[in-house]
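Intended use. Records such as the FMN reductase (Sulfate starvation-induced protein 4) (SSI4) entry shown here are meant for training and evaluating sequence-to-structure methods. They are not intended to support clinical decisions.
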Amino acid sequence: MAGRVATSLAASGFETSAEVIEVGELGSGLLGWGDPTVGAALATIRAADVLIIATPTYKATYTGLLKLLLDQIGGGELAGLPAIPVQVAAAPQHALAVEVHLRPVLVEIGAACPTTGLFVLDSALAELPTQLDAWGSVNLPAVSALVAARRAVSAPSA
């Protein structure tokens, strides 16, 4: 799912490369602190221009594996990193989970969420390109503007 959102960013003219972190592959390293594989994943997150966090909805919120990863990022540590929260669910009753559960934890660790979260029913995944186009036309300009502002601030002055 995150890869499809990243592809949508690229199609809108956003210049960046995508690295996917499959949280399930981090395994037991998520259960403690200092695991080198988890550390590499966290370094990738911190170095990103845009963070796309995609998760299935589990027990009306995000997965425990994602929670274990996000718990290793300190409050405010992401320092305004643009983030796009994405959730997939089996039932429309969970549509607010992306805004009520995922967005607040991203903001707590310092991410900036300049868009509405993207919620997708798993029964509608076949229509994902159309949903991404509609969502992107409204939301991607805000992401692009925030990334450009961050790049301008971090660019060395002449």
